[in-house]
Amino acid sequence: MSARGKVLVAGATGFVGQRLVPALVGLGYDVLCASSDARAAQARWPDYTWIELDVHTPSTLEALRGCRAAFYLVHSIGEGHDYARRERVAAEAFARAAEAEGLERIVYLGGVRPLGGCSRHLRARLEVGQALSSTRVSVVELRAGMLVGHGSASWTMVSALAARLPAMLLPSWLDRHSWPVGVEDAVGALIAGLELPDDQAGSYSIPGPERIAHRELLARTAAARGKHPYMLRVPFVSPTLSSYWIAAVTGVPLSLVRELVAGIQFELDPSTPPLWPLIGRGPTPLDETIRLALADERVLRSAG
Q: Model's pTM, two decimal places?
């Protein structure tokens, strides 16, 4: 083990995990990357150490042995009608295994708790946080709204709509607000959460720098692309109908779009203390975050 100790990243092949792992390695952590298909992951990312771990298969949780801490980035939104139950059961098993192996800390990236209601997707994120906190292992839960960055499903929806539609019909629920945060800011928060003292463990929000309506986020993303689509507010477009055309335009799977659209019908304001003052930094300005995300898209598109 390095001086910082061995850290396991569950969900290392995902959108956030692919950014977190190199950041941890760069800081000197001994990182163990976990995947349900470690052989394929090792072939794709040969510079990192991989181990087989499927949170839905308890026998593979022995991968936690010898680790100081773990990041829990696993999320199966939209994967079957009972995904919320399966996520909760998996998180409970992960927490028990972490306790049995003597881990000091679990850091979990969750979602916000909206006021006045909660979609199935957001409720599942909260229940996973509760399950991970059910043992004596110290847990830091970071609650984020939309993550802005290439590869985020919610950002893909926004970016693709802004790029491809010359005109948009905007349902009234797009007047709801959220606090979008850049993925690099989220990665920084996750690493900071790993090193918080035990007496500061708990749930924190990691909001972006602005409270913004979803329709305004679409407009600003379009403007950053040099586009100015005609936008017409309409009072009666159901989330179900909207999900079909969003999936068709953006290429995001319909099952995933439905879950995300259900969530943005609520005001996605932070309900826990913000982490930023505790760690002495704040999030990147939103327009800069949008610019960086679009630049990443262009680089990857030209490389492909």
A: 0.94
Measured between its terminal Cα atoms, the distance across the chain in Å is: 37
Domain 6-150+180-208+269-283 part of CATH 3.40.390.10:
no
β-bridge pairing 69-72 and 6-10: parallel
User: Count of CB atoms within 10 A of residue 39's CB?
Assistant: 10
**Helices and strands of the chain, counted as H and E runs:** 11, 13
Residues in CB range of 131: below 8 A, 6 or more apart: 88, 91, 92, 95
Residues 21, 25, 31, 32: is their CA dihedral positive or negative?
A: positive
Every domain of the chain and the residues it spans: 6-150+180-208+269-283
Locus of tokens 């800390």? 105
* Strand blocks (E) in 95-196: 105-111, 138-144, 147-148, 167-171, 177-178, 181-182
| Cα 301 to Cα 17, 80, 185, 223, distances in angstroms | 21, 31, 23, 20
- Count of C-beta atoms within a 10 Å radius of residue 251: 12
**pLDDT tens-place string over residues 36-95:** 999 999 999 999 999 999 999 999 999 999 999 999 999 876 566 778 899 999 999 999
